[in-house]
Design brief:
The structure is a homodimer.
Chain A lengths: L2 H17 L3 H17 L1 H17 L4 H7 L3 H16 L7 E6 L5 E8 L2 E6 L4 H12 L3 E5 L5 H17 L7 E3 L5 H8 L7 E5 L2 H10 L12 E5 L5 H13 L8 E7 H15 L5 E4 L1 H7 L4 E2 L2 H5 L6 E7 L2 H11 L4 E5 L3 H10 L4 E6 L17 E2 L7 E2 L6 E12 L2
Parallel strand pairs in A: 3-4, 3-6, 4-5, 7-8, 7-12, 8-11, 9-10, 9-11, 12-13
Antiparallel strand pairs in A: 1-2, 2-16, 14-15
Helix pairs in contact in A: 2-5, 2-7, 3-7, 5-6, 10-11
Chain lengths: ~425, ~425
């Protein structure tokens, strides 16, 4: 039997135990994991050092090395993240709907765990702990396949969490970390129907597309964000500058940062110089349409289809002056990845029209797109931001790691 | 450009119009479709006759020919089904959740259409109308790919519905019926990411697995039902006989009929002869374990792993005597397709244990599994019964043909 199928069988065996565990037992396990992370900080740092050494030898960029690094502060942060899940309401057992049928059947729709969740991710090793803890709280078993850059850190974190589970009387196999870096394991995991109930890829667009294209297990697609701010003709200029600047420059590497700016022609001559002035602080590179170049001058480079379609994840923006809100909505419809979109406006009609007609997980009126986040929404934690329409859309918290079950009670009803 | 991609583009162009349509307009369109079906009954029957002629020439079984046949009564039934959707509440626009964050952001979670739904089906042409009408009511565009046996009927039904849409001022491309029977179109439809938001296969297990294995578009898996009745030691014998007989023989070809019967050893000697007597009316063929054979005699054939794993869809049942409810639950865990499972019992403990530990879309206490159905649940109509855990589980009504959108209203909030 393949190593991957063995992982699947072990996960399926552990599944009913964590699915049936009480909220108290799950919270005790989270507490034990948090404590174990703190107590084993030096061990984690030592294993992480091996990954960092390899990263240096492979000439990994300084930014990537920084993302990979675990120190006492970051380990304390991970432990705190686990502790915070304890306070969140347990979604399992929640009655979502219930009714009685004319024939006397009583039907109750209840939240139950998804079962076995597979996470395929790269980059930061803290995902190992975040994802495992969220899956655990929602009563699921989890199989974690991280990137090769963090393999020593991931295995060490997995072992610490598994030991903590056993100390609480739970099977270690509720949390399994793949201990190799082979592509074959990833490919097998993507086709482990019957053992894995859902796959959640986290990382680059390339990784996510590889999973979407190859998995036969149901996938929740996360992450890609070609987001826009549209500045309506009635916008408050100062508010529009603040929101656009924040959405672009506060953290340009993330999926809820904007990549393009659309400006109504009647406000462009006032607004564009103001935002260009603000962008100077971060040396934001501007691509623009002809009208943008007319207004801002030829430091602006000509934008093509390519710039409007690109997720820069950097201090770069593509600007277009539009004749109407309809043109803005049509542009968004063409280029958006349906993640987060924003209008800045004083017009009630424009606000309603934009929220009704723009198809995206999150549609903002007069607020930065940077708020599309489980923490900011008050969900306490998130396992990713879904950009597909099935099952989950937008920030995914604990409820999105569950499914439902119908319980039907009768007294002999037949058809 | 391929024919299939053209279908996708046309659907995406029609999508925002039906997504934004008022409930009244959608209901008017349903009413127009229902009327057009009735008025064009003779045309439908004539086109259906071509399919029936081809079926005869290809020696299709009489039962299959019967499923294919449309007559005035069946057409009236289809029209009535469409009319009944008018009375159902429109799920679109429903506010599912809403809250205000400490920073003043007001967040509203609203139901919106999924977008473009692809249905791949075989057998009965009435699926063409049922599925199109459900998708329409939930604000979606739909692409229907039926089987080659019903191609003339399907094209005719599609044309009638499209004409009715245009008479209401809606684009015909809200409903598209694939007008060829090529496998290539099906394969392309399964990979039409960006144009099709979800695929729902309906038909044989073979068809459904082909879609699950090959699609890169998200799929909702429907249908497979290896369902069980477990007769607990405390069961009322008469009730257990009625429920088991109904669940097996009332309509054995459907997914919510049972395939296996589990009986507690302490009740087996009383219950098994009673149910065997009842089964005689339908000549139900019984496979059984050694204890079953001991009790019922050697008209019972020995059951193997194969019988316990088979969805017979026929007057055949596999029986096993178990030592305990735990053995019954373990057996179900091993063989069930997680569709519908039933316990007959007088014990509150057994009822609770069974409903908690059995993992299935619908778990019954003292009622026939045959109730797992959109109509029986009061959902008015269904597009299928989901046997996967993502997005939808159990009977899928209008709500399952929707997704959500977060609307966020601020007054200049930035991070």
């Amino acid at each position: 039997m393949s190593y991957t199928k063995e992982l699947g069988i072990k996960a399926k065996n552990a599944e009913p135990i964590i699915a049936g565990a009480s909220t108290k037992l799950k919270n005790d396990a989270l507490s034990a994991i948090s404590k174990a992370l703190t107590e084993n900080a030096q061990l984690i740092i030592a294993e992480n050092a091996k990954d960092l050494q390899a990263a240096k030898e492979n000439n990994m960029s300084q930014a990537m090395q920084d993302r990979l690094k675990l120190d006492e502060t970051r380990i304390a942060g991970m432990a705190k993240g686990v502790d915070e899940l304890i306070a969140l309401n347990d979604p399992i057992g929640q009655v979502i709907d219930g009714f009685e049928r004319p024939n006397g059947l009583r039907i109750t729709k209840k939240r139950v765990p998804l079962g076995v969740i597979g996470i395929i991710f790269e980059s930061r090793p803290n995902v190992t702990v975040d994802a495992a803890a969220l899956c655990l709280k929602a009563g699921n078993a989890v199989i974690l396949k991280g990137g090769k850059e963090a393999i020593n850190s991931n295995i060490c974190l997995g072992k610490i969490m598994r030991d903590a589970l056993e100390k609480c009387g739970l099977p270690a196999d509720i949390i399994q970390v793949v201990d190799n870096t082979s592509r074959e394991t990833t490919n097998e995991l993507m086709k482990l129907n019957g053992y894995v109930d859902v796959l959640i890829p986290r990382g680059s667009a390339r990784l996510i597309q590889a999973v979407v294209q190859n998995a036969t297990v149901p996938v929740i697609e996360t992450g890609a964000g070609n987001c826009h701010v549209y500045v309506d003709d009635s916008a408050d200029i100062d508010m529009a500058v603040d929101i656009t600047d924040n959405a672009k420059t506060q953290r340009p590497s993330v999926c809820n940062a904007i990549e393009s700016l659309l400006v109504h022609k009647d406000i462009a001559e006032k607004f564009l110089p103001a935002i260009a002035e603000r962008f100077k602080a971060h040396n934001v590179k501007i691509y623009g349409c002809d009208k943008t170049i007319d207004i801002l001058g030829d430091t602006v480079e000509k934008a093509t289809e390519i710039e409007y379609a690109t997720e820069f994840n950097d201090y770069i923006i593509a600007v277009k002056v539009v004749d109407s809100i309809d043109e803005a909505i049509a542009h968004i419809r063409k280029y958006s990845t349906r993640h987060s979109e924003c209008i800045v406006t004083k017009s009630l009609d424009s606000a309603h029209k934009f929220q009704k007609e723009v198809d995206a997980a999150a549609v903002y009126v007069n607020a930065s797109t940077r708020f599309t986040d489980g923490g900011e929404f008050g969900y306490g934690a998130e396992i990713g931001i879904s950009t597909q329409k099935l099952h989950a859309r937008g920030p995914m918290g604990l409820a999105e790691l569950t499914t439902v079950k119908y319980l039907i009670d009768g007294n002999g009803q037949i058809r």
